Every structure is written in structure tokens, then in C-alpha cells.
Amino acid sequence: MTTERTIIHADMDAFYASVEQRDNPELRGKPVIVGGSPESRGVVSAASYEAREFGVHSAMPTAHAKRRCPHAVFLPVRMEKYQDVSRQIRRVFEQFTPLIEPLALDEAFMDITGSLRLLGSPREIGWKIKHKVKEQTELIVSIGVAPNKFLAKLASDLSKPDGLLEVAEAEKLEFLGKLEVGRLWGVGKKTAKVLEEFGIRTVEQLRRVPVDVLKRRIGNVAEHLSQLAHGEDSRHVVPDHEAKSIGSECTFSSNIASMEQLEPVALAHSEDVAARVRSCGLTAKTVTLKVKFADFTLTTRSTTLDAATDRTDIIATTAIGLLHNHDKLTGRSVRLLGVSVSQLSSQGERQLSLFGSEEDTKRRDLDRAVDQIRKEMGKDKIKRGRLL
């Protein structure tokens, strides 16, 4: 029996051009084309939506783009800048799942199956990602949510710009039915022409044709297209590397200097992180406290445990200890506080706790009971006394 997955495809809207408009407010609302001078033999790397209205698109020669949109602002590619922003966006994604498969600087797949019981419904998580990206980068991301990668990518494409579209398992055939067959991966101009000659213009029409009949027309790709037409895609999200860390952080609306106020925040972040570690079937060995001061100075303090853990109390006690022992906190106001864990491994590799196996079992049972209550009744239905 295959476990149903929940996949998100996140795609930044007009990424390079949007970064340029963000960094130079005078460009907002104007057609912006990134890719160099129209006098050069270069191609368009990105075009703002204002430029797209004139038929400008990526990979078009800049000279052609100039003819279509003569009043556009042409800018050189600032790849280092876009890479920096992409890393910022990646850090946002990592707050929701460690299972991230980047496709380019501006798009990625995420498997959020293990995050649902902690962070909410697929749609809620999608909106949270959109909000966080906007909050931290001032940029817009479009989101597709679906049971597989193909449908998630298609949903994000159809939600642009600045949208969120969810395709549920029960709705996928209806969703696909009226779309042009060219929306299926693997259908290029040549294949589309052959299918049209056969009377197939929509996905629903393709779905009705037996695979062996399709094979005689378009060859071995027929089986692949038939699967997509039925909304089937068995590929998993494959992270570009094993998850390095799981973290939670927040920026305060006003700076905080009181340890009395900072400690509950560290505890709340620790609870969030520990729950996400458990939901992913992982344990962690290193705990890190992140502090950004009012002057924007950023510091981190870490400690490595004797044994990997997924227990809330151990992660929280360690994080709060790092907070109290921070050598630069005295007399300074804090703008941001965060807790993260790293050196992640599967729960099967977990060693016995220093507190003894019986105590360890009780604590872990308690954590799982809390996780279950929050899953069934909501995250705010049960709190630690220190957070009330």
C-alpha cells in the first residue's frame, strides 16, 4: 500500500526581475528585462510581468525583446545577488520541511507529508510559506499543492502570479481533464501535432485512448503520458543533500532585553523544532541558539549532546542553557531569537539517553501524546505551564 504524499512546488514570480525591482523601487511597475544590453548577442534571463505583456519571455534574444518592448529597462545579470536571495528563500523552506528538492534558484519541490500534523493543513502550510517568503524577502512565490510532483508543478504554473492552488487526490482527474494535452510533461510541439492529427487536444481525450493504440502513434512515450493523464507520478522528492538542520525563529515586533521574556520564546522554538524532528523520524545531536541584536549583529551559540535525541525537554533545556550562558547578552536588546538542531540521523540510530532508558521512554511517550493532541485538536490546545 502506497502512502499518500503531500507535495508542494514553490516557484518565485519573475525572480531575477523581481529582485531588481525590489532593490530599486523606481523600477516597480515598469517593464524590466534581465539579460544584458539589447545591442549584445545575449538572451533574456528574466522578464518582469510588465515586460511579459509585450510578449517578452526568457531565452528570447535581447535584440528581439528590445523590438517588442522598446521602453523596457535592460539590466545585467547579478548572479551572486540572486544566489544570496535564493539561499534566504531556502532557509524559509527549511522551516517547514527538511525534504527539499531545488530545481533552480527560483523553484523547488517540498515533501510536507511529515509536517502536516504539526503545522496544519496543506493549504495552511502553503499560505504560511507564501507569507514567510514575502515577510523575509519582499518577494512573491506561487505555490502548487498536490499528491505528487507533476500535479504540484502544474498547479503552481496555473496559479501564477501570486497564487496558491491545491489539487486533492479526489479532484485530480477533473482538474486535468479540460487542460490542453501540451500541459503534460513530454508533449512537445511535434508530439502535440501528432496527437492533434489523431483528434486528441485535451488531457481527457488522451486518457480515453488505450495505451497500445497510443503507442502505435507516438511510441514508448505513450505509457508515460497515459500515467500523467491519470494524474499519476511515483517520483519522490529527492533532496539535493541530506537535511542539515531543522530550525525555528522569530523577529520581535519590538526589541526585548529581558531574560524573563526571552526564555519562554526559546522554549516555544524548542518545542516546535523537537516536534518537527519527531515528525520527520529523525534525531539531532547539536543544538544551536541564534540571536540577532538591535544593531543587527548576529551571533550563534551551539552545543553537541552526548547522544542524539528527539526529546523536547532535552532540546529546550540545552537551548535555554545557551541563552543564559550567552556572553554578549548583558545589557543588550534582542531583535530575533531562534533555535535549531543539526547532526540529524534516523531514529533507529538513537542511543540511550543519559537519564536512563525508563525515563527516556516516559519522556518520549509524553512528547508523542502532546504531538497527537495537537494534531487532532490544534497546536494551541495544549501548552507547557511556562508558556501560559
**CATH topology category name of the largest domain:** Dna Ligase, domain 1
* N to C succession of SSEs: EHEEHHEHEEHHEHEHHHHHEHEEHEEH
Adjacency order of strands in the biggest sheet = 5-6-1-7-8
- Proportion of residues in helical segments: 40-55%
Q: DSSP helix count?
A: 15
Number of strands: 13
Reported for the largest beta sheet, the result is:
5 strands, mixed
Radius of gyration: 25 Å
The CATH superfamily of the largest domain is identified as DNA polymerase, Y-family, little finger domain
Helix and strand content put the structural class at alpha+beta
Overall 3D geometry? Answer: flat
Query: End-to-end distance, in Å?
Result: 42 Å
- Give average pLDDT, whole number: 87
Enumerate the spans where pLDDT stays under 50 for 5 or more consecutive residues.
348-356
Count of folded domains? 4
Instruction: State which percent range the strand residues make up.
Output: 15-25%
The quaternary state of the protein chains shown equals single chain
User: What's the level 1 CATH class of the largest domain?
Assistant: Alpha Beta
CATH architecture of the largest domain: 2-Layer Sandwich
